[in-house]
Amino acid sequence: MTTNNGRDFYQEFEVFSSKSNGDQVQHQFSLLAPNEEIALVMAQENFMRRQPVADIWVVKRSNVRKMTQEEKESLHRLDNKEYRTTKGYGYLKKKWRHYEQNILDEKEILSWGGEEKQ
What we know:
Elements: E1 11-18, E2 26-33, H1 36-50, E3 55-60, H2 69-73, H3 91-101, H4 106-113
Antiparallel strand pairs: 1-2, 1-3
């Protein structure tokens, strides 16, 4: 095995963890290690000193696949679906305020009738 100042010896790993069973797994940090077993030990050492953890995942960075530019572009919607987002209803607050300002109160309604004839 040839080593170019250790660059070929170490591999990059991404570390994910969850704080308790059933929690989502979140990315924590990256580390360099010679293999998966050592990477897991290094990740455990890091977490056991700092915070409680229920599960740790160690993934070789080369095994993580990201989307290509072409795949990202395919995510854009071709049609207008703004009605699916809540920002499409932002006008309702203003409309409701206008409606509330025009509501008649009890005194105003009673003032219309004057005195009732008996």
